[in-house]
Write a structure and sequence with these properties.
Layout (H helix, E strand, L loop, with lengths): L5 E5 L7 H12 L6 E7 H7 L3 H15 L5 E8 L5 H4 L4 E5 L10 H10 L5 E2 L10 E2 L1 H29 L5 E5 L9 H14 L5 E3 L16 H21 L7 E5 L5 H13 L4 E4 L2 H14 L1 H16 L1 H5 L16 H5 L3 H8 L10 H9 L1 H7 L1 H9 L1 H22 L1
Parallel strand pairs: 1-2, 1-10, 2-3, 3-4, 4-7, 7-8, 8-9, 9-10
Antiparallel strand pairs: 5-6
Helix pairs in contact: 1-3, 1-18, 5-6, 6-7, 7-8, 8-9, 9-18, 10-11, 10-14, 10-18, 11-15
The structure holds zinc ion.
Length: about 425
């Protein structure tokens, strides 16, 4: 099983927007784009809203059937590790093997030495076509990379083998992620990480490094977009060399765990992937839940009442809700409006406050980020919330499709 050159991941906290999401991909395909639609959900999300990996499979299959979709689609067990992978093995066919927690743990001395020994042919300047940066490889550098990443690569292999034992190798897409860490991996580190994965026997098809800059949840990229573009391009060139040198899958590509809505890097991603005939996987997730909130606000009636209640409770339970995300949000509490004020606004203004139109005078980044963290509260409302999604499905679905197509798929893959 091989993933297409281009693929797009969507998350759906409450499993009601599968059709609206797939409509966006179908619209993108109308312009001739070949793209894989992926539904991703992490263990953390499942625990928060009390859903199961089988629910994601059911939703995906139903959306595909309802729309007569003929393209490739996958169900991504997002950020799994050995402790939680089992429930995902049956329903999923894309596995994001998260080894971030194992970075920095040391492999055995014998393995470390053998890795460094094997890579000695690369000592000196790392020659990678198209890269002007000077990456020098020394024995010390190799030893450092090995100490930092070899054990993580071995752990990825253990998890990969565990999945392959049930599903059969070749029946799923293996991704390896190391994005949830403090320090970005440099392109020359990535090269030897791929060496380690190859040596450990992981036929990785997508790799998610941590890139420079801040990838806050649900809002735009914060950082130097030129530096991002350079790093992204160098990573692609590194991958191309690694495919040849380490006998990795031909279609190996970068996976960008975007945290949704990284509009200012979409254009560089599109231009650089085209320039190098490279692929990319881009994951979004929370952006769809936020469109539900926007749609409900716009709908008025019970819809807007639910959104106001979620916001009010989110302020009361601020620490609890934002703590799990504290490294990937920047909320200035003093800029958050008082709920009494929000109640006087009406649904359209509330929708404009949350909707990710950075030029709109009502847009409030902190409000949006807080709502991003607050989906747990919608989960606690249970059927009251999901009934509202059904009741207002037309306006909610329209927002979900528009957002994924116009703000994500189009700038990323079309123009
Ligand atoms: Zn991630």
């Amino acid at each position: 099983m091989q993933i297409n050159r281009f693929s797009f991941g969507t998350g759906d906290r409450f499993a009601h927007q599968g059709i609206a999401q797939l409509k966006a991909t179908l619209k993108a395909m109308e312009s001739g784009l070949e793209i894989t639609h992926v539904w991703n959900k992490s263990n953390r999300e499942h625990l928060t809203v009390k859903s199961s990996p089988a629910d994601v499979r059911r939703e995906a299959d139903e959306a595909v059937k309802a729309l007569g979709y003929k393209g490739q689609y996958l169900v991504d067990a997002d950020h799994i590790n050995m402790n939680n992978v089992d429930a995902f093995i049956g329903p999923s066919d894309f596995f994001t093997i998260d080894v971030a927690d194992y970075i920095g743990q040391k492999a055995s001395e014998k393995d470390l030495q053998s890795f460094v020994e094997k890579q000695k042919s690369y000592l000196g300047k790392l020659e990678i076509e198209g890269i002007s940066s000077q990456y020098m490889v020394t024995t010390e550098f190799l030893r450092n990379v090995a100490e930092k990443y070899l054990f993580a690569a071995q752990e990825a292999a253990r998890i990969y083998q565990h999945i392959a034992a049930s599903k059969g190798a070749g029946n799923f897409i293996p991704e390896v992620s190391m994005d949830e860490v403090d320090e970005p991996q440099t392109p020359n580190e990535l090269f030897f990480i791929l060496a380690a994965l190859s040596e450990a026997g992981v036929p990785v098809q997508t790799i998610a490094p941590k890139f420079t800059g801040r990838f806050n949840k649900g809002v735009d990229y914060v950082g130097n977009t030129e530096q991002f573009a350079r790093e992204f391009e160098e990573d692609i060139l590194v991958i191309n060399k690694a495919i040849k040198e380490f006998n990795l899958p031909e279609n190996l590509k970068l996976s960008v765990h975007s945290g949704s809505d990284k509009f200012s890097i979409y254009r560089p991603i599109r231009e650089i992937t085209r320039k190098h005939n490279a692929g990319v996987h881009l994951k979004t997730a929370g952006t769809t839940w936020l469109e539900e909130a926007i749609g409900l606000a716009e709908a008025g009636g019970e819809g807007v009442e639910i959104v106001v209640r979620i916001y009010e409770q989110a302020l009361e339970r601020f620490e609890e809700l934002t703590n799990p995300y504290r490294t990937v949000i920047d909320i200035h509490r003093e800029l958050l409006p008082h709920p009494a004020e929000v109640k006087t606004w009406g649904g359209i203004k509330i929708a404009n406050t949350i909707r990710h139109d950075q030029h709109h005078p009502d847009f409030n980044s902190g409000f949006r980020q807080l709502m991003h963290c607050a989906y747990k509260l919608a989960g606690e409302m249970g059927s009251e919330y999901t009934n509202a999604l059904l009741k207002y499905s037309e306006v909610v679905g329209r927002n979900v499709t528009y957002n994924l197509y116009e703000r994500h798929l189009k700038p990323l893959f079309i123009d």
